[in-house]
Amino acid sequence: MLKFLLTRVRQGTRTASFPDGDAGFPERFRGRPGFDAARCPKGCRTCRTEAPTGLLVQDDRGGTRMDLGACLFSPEEAAACPHQAVTFTTDHAMASRTREGLLSPDGEIPGVTALDARMRRLFGRSLRLRSVVAGSCGGCEAELNALGNVVFDMARFGVQFVASPRHADGILLTGAVSRNMRSALQRTYEAVAEPRLVIVAGACAISGGPFRGSLEVGDGVPADLPVDLWIPGCPPHPLTILDGLLRLVGRIESRG
Fold first, then answer.
1. What is the DSSP annotation of 221-238?
2. pTM of the predicted model over 0.85
3. Is 154 helix (H, G, I), strand (E, B) or coil?
4. Residue 37 CB neighbour total at 10 angstroms
């Protein structure tokens, strides 16, 4: 027992200093994608036609813009552009209050605005969330589980997952929403008392991810479910999730 205590003392504090200080991501970390239109010759559509995902889409003027909600954060997405116009930054803050906010000509997105004063008074400075896994590979859920470990320690901010939607302030949806889970998702949502929050995390929940267009799943969250926070990633990093949640309840200020 004494050896255990001495080892623990030598290890020091393991909890991340978030939201203060640098997150310390290595250069190989693939965070928020960026697009440099100046690198693309006029009329070039190679990025959109060769990209393995829906990251690059056509805008209203025939140009190219990024859809962070469809991004799988894979090196192949950047390699698809022969002009190296697509890159990945180490910025982990990517959440948006709207789906449209994840569409950007250069990868920059508006900061998450906090809930209105009435909602913040109701929820206080904490959140209780019911996780709904509606057809997932398990990657997003692994990151959600990591939020409870000693490094990220989500509970220190008053954010916790609960077993019953009756005890929750909202739901956190992951997965592409399979046909078999559509009814369960709706019933879980209805079991949460109003006012309730809906948070979607991961490319599958936002856009269907790599399964978009499949006969067995929808294209992510159903259109009739009102969403308060969109968190991109495949899977989203724990700090990406935590950053979005804390900005939503006004615990940290938006950059925008």
1. S-TTS--SEEE--SSPPH
2. yes
3. helix
4. 12
Q: What is the pLDDT of residues 26-57, one digit of tens each?
A: 989 999 999 998 887 776 766 667 778 889 88
Confidence of residue 254 (pLDDT cuts 50, 70, 90): low
Cα 217 vs. chain centroid, distance in angstroms?
A: 19
Question: Token pair of 92, please?
Answer: 């982990």
Strands 103-104 and 64-67: antiparallel
Residue listed under structure tokens 């490094």: 151
Tell me the C-alpha distance between 156 and 147, whole Å: 11
Q: What one-character DSSP code corresponds to residue 178?
A: B
Token pair belonging to 98:
């709207």
- Measure the CA–CA gap between 134 and 185, rounded to whole angstroms: 7
Amino acid identity at 61: R
pLDDT digits (tens, 9 = 90+) for 124-173: 878 999 999 999 999 999 999 999 999 999 999 999 999 999 999 999 99
Q: Which residues of 116-126 are buried (b: 16+ CB within 10 A; e: fewer)?
A: eeebeeebeee
Q: Provide the CB-side half-sphere exposure for 16 (13 A, CA).
A: 22
Tell me if 204 sits within 8 A of 136, measured CB to CB: yes
d(CA 183, CA 202): 20
Locate all alpha helices (DSSP H) within 61-113, ordered by sequence: 75-79
Q: Is 256 in contact with 94 (CB distance < 8 Å)?
A: no
